[in-house]
Amino acid sequence: MKKIFLFFVTAICFGIINTSYSQCAYDNTIFLTWTAPPNIGDQVSTTCNYSGEYNRVTGMTAGYKYRISTCGDPDFDTQLTIYPAGGGANVGYNDDFCSTQSQIDFVPTTSGNYDILLDRFFCINDNAPPCMTMVVERIGPVNDLCANAIPLTYSCGTVTSGTTQNATTESVPVCVTSSTSPGVWYTVTGTGGAMIAETCTGTTFDSKISVYTGSCGAFTCVTGNDDACGLQSRVKWSSTFGTTYYILVHGFGSASGPFNLSFDNTEMTNQACTSPIIVTAGAYTGNTICTDNDNAPTCVTG
After folding, report:
1. Which of 71, 133, 165, 210 has most Cβ atoms within 10 angstroms of its Cβ?
2. What pTM did the predictor assign?
3. If you write DSSP's letter for every residue of 11-49 in order, what string do you get?
4. Residue 183 and residue 177 in contact, taking contact as beta carbons nearer than 8 Å
């Protein structure tokens, strides 16, 4: 028995037997209640959180990205665990993101209230000094996830400004070009004619565009592009009237930043009188979005 015991101690000391640490149990006491920061860059914080306490953050919105952090305060080795308010299955955990401190980038799947538990390493909750600074910051764009795609109206000259900074890198099918960087989502309804979207003007990073039909998590690729105009992108596709198209703006490699997404239709083949489409009996679809005014003579109507 002595030999077995000595081997067991030696095994632990020299790492032969590994012990892993996981999410801390929901057994802390409440310290403060905060309202979730509503805008990108907004934050709430406390300067003296003891291990064994939790902060309840109310009004967190599904699809928004929040950063919970104790980084920068070396008072003790922290662990952070996130639970729905009142307990249940944990939905987030971190230990040692920044040296011995912790940080979680958290995207709620359900809007509501969440409890952020602060523990000392080994899940110790002694409610004793020293104390830590904890910060909760809203960092992600509204349309970070496909489920929160922003609907846009396809019209000539429409420019929508956005950013992919601090967005999530979602797993999507390769669509002409792969998606490896943070991205944000928009939707547009098909006009029945050609549609063009681009990031060619006012975009400050190496951008990509991917266009899908279907639904979040069940996409069919329509088209995609990387570097149609310098390091920026431009896509064109023939749309079906009434079909919803999902537009993902993302970047090359891990690039991210602010962008302008604009719509154009300068490639309509029959927008000038000199290049009409010759028709025969039948039905035709098309659109006049982004076409020129030829100032034709009045013919019954102007």
Report:
1. 210
2. 0.60
3. HHHTTSS-----PPPS--EEEEEEEPP-STT-EEEEEEE
4. no
Strand partners, 98: 101
Question: Is the separation of the CB atoms in 208 and 177 below 8 Å?
Answer: yes
Residue located via tokens 């002409």: 176
Residue 19's pLDDT band, with cuts at 50, 70 and 90, is very low
- State what percent of residues in the chain have pLDDT above 90: 59
Q: Which two tokens stand for residue 21?
A: 């640490």
Sequence-distant (6+) residues with CB within 8 A of 274 are: none
60-114 pLDDT, tens digit each? 988 788 999 999 999 999 999 999 999 999 999 999 999 999 999 998 888 999 9
What is the rounded CA–CA span in Å between residue 74 and residue 32? 21
Task: Name the token pair of 121.
Answer: 């390493």
Which of 184, 173, 249, 169 is closest to 218 using CA atoms? 173
